[in-house]
Each structure stands twice: as C-alpha cells, then as structure tokens.
Amino acid sequence: QAKKLGRNNAQFFTPALNERVTLRLHLESDLRHATERNELVLHFQPRIDARSGRIAGVESLVRWQHPTEGMIPPVQFIPLAEESGLIIEIGAWIIDAACAQHQHWRKQGVGPMPISINLSALQLRDANLPTILSQAIARHAVPAAQIELELTESLLMDNVDDILLVLNSLKALGFSLSIDDFGTGYSSLNYLYRFPIDKLKIDRSFIQNIHTSADNLAVTRAIIGLGHTLGLEVVAEGVELASDVQVLQDAGCDELQGYHFSRPLPAAQFAEWLVAHRETVG
Ligand code: C2E
Ligand code: MG
Ligand code: MG
Ligand code: MG
To answer: Residue ranges of the EAL domain (predicted)?
Structure first.
C-alpha cells in the first residue's frame, strides 16, 4: 500500500505539471508589471433589456495581453492577482479604465449606458475602495449612478457586518450593486434581504440548460420570482440560444446577456456593434 502511494506521489512530478508550475511562477512575476506595461485591456459585453430589446448596459471584462503567452483570460490571472495582493492595484486600473471608457463613449455620442465592473472580494475588504471609486468617477466625470459593481455571492458570507458597512457606503455614494453568478454560492436569503443589493445575475450554468432541463428552468423561474419579491432586478447570464430568449422573457427576466447577443468585444468593436443594433437587438 505504502509502495503504491509512493509511486503515485512520484507521478505527481510529471514534466507537464512542472511546466505548468513554471508558467505559473513566471506569470505571477510578469503580472507585477502588467499594468505599468499597459498589457491589461477591457472587453465589453452588452446587457439587453428583455422587454424592449434595447441595450440596458455593458459589462467590462478584463483580459491580459501577455507579450509571449498571448491573451490570458481572467480566470487564469485574477486568482494569481488575488493571491499576491496585486488585485488591489489591478482592480484600481480596471475601475479607472472602465470610467475612462464610459466618458469616451459619451463624448462620441455612444450611450450613456450603465457600465458594470466586477470586483474581487479582496477589493471589497480594502478600506480605500470607496475612495478609489470616487476618484475615478470624478476624474472621468461619470455619475456614480452609471456604475454597477458586480460582487460574488460567497463574498457576502464572510464578515457580514463589515461587508454590510462597505456596501452601505458604496450605495450612499450612488453606485448600484449586483450579485454575480447567483445560485452557485450559498448566500442565506436573510443576508440577501439585509444587503443593499439592486440586482441578481443568475449564473450561466442554470441558463445554459433551461432548454434541456425542467429543473434548471424551474430554478431559474424561482430565482426570478425571489428577486422580484425582494424588489431586485434579475439578469440572465450566458444566453446563447434564440429559444432561451423567449423562455426568459416569458419567465419575467429583466435583462439578458450572452453570446446570442454578443461576445465580449474590444471597445472599438463594441461601439460598432452598438451602432448596428441601436434600435433593437432581438
Ligand atoms: P462573470 O463576471 O460572471 O462574467 C461572465 C463571463 O461569462 C465572461 O467570461 C463572459 O465572457 C462569459 N460569457 C458571457 N456570455 C456567455 C455565453 O453566452 N456563454 C458562455 N459560455 N460564456 C459567456 P470572462 O470574461 O472570461 O470572465 C470570467 C470571470 O472572470 C468573470 O465572470 C469574473 O468573475 C472574472 N472577471 C472578469 N473581468 C474581471 C474584472 O475586471 N475584475 C475581476 N475582479 N474579475 C473579473
Ligand atoms: Mg460579472
Ligand atoms: Mg457571472
Ligand atoms: Mg463568474
């Protein structure tokens, strides 16, 4: 038995794993310079008003254009940024870039439309977050009401009283607050009720199966009902099929987001998409 375990342990150090560990280490050190070297970029994905078919807002999603590894998605480097603490600096860059883009589009006559920014749990625990946000909107003359902050559900569970204070202060500054990936965490309904939240975004793992799973459709309908009971708007993430649009409209969903409407796009392409879909996006 011990021999078997030993062999399995030895297998742990495969060349492939070594390569991954090495890549990870060198990514982590490269990440330290990513903001100053201008390697981060925001892409933008529209949210659609389910009733009118018009654009309701836009979500900013960060990418890392690594000089040798190519485009690195956020799921690969946001965790590294969190472990190393760099997320505070990177998060501040993201907040500033989103506000700058909002101002730029407004000057171009595109919008204004609310822009959402994903926040890491560590940013929410940073006492400077309200200041970072306030300075960014002041710098780019963006009304706070145009900024939606997307928070994940798990974040609401630790240090409830501290988090409540932070969220209340962000609300008082005029920002709106959404719970992202709703349904994948385990937030108590009691907290949901206590927190000053404006919106729930139903995780795409539910939405992507509504056409094949009666259970997923039932859960989706229940979340929409729950959200409305609490006075919240409800967004469906990951809408990929035209047939999902109708089902979600019938279920009373307020906003829809997903590849069916558009993938996340670089700023210039997003503006073109917007012009082409100015009237309605069905
Ligand atoms: P999220 O905030 O839930 O963003 C939605 C993700 O789903 C995005 O992936 C988006 O490209 C993808 N998506 C949108 N529509 C569809 C669809 O119809 N089908 C499928 N399969 N996927 C769809 P992305 O951009 O790779 O981001 C992944 C996650 O990384 C985000 O999930 C968010 O948690 C995190 N993230 C992204 N940008 C930022 C950021 O600026 N700051 C922080 N802290 N986290 C970010
Ligand atoms: Mg999000
Ligand atoms: Mg999400
Ligand atoms: Mg997510």
So the answer is: 24-278
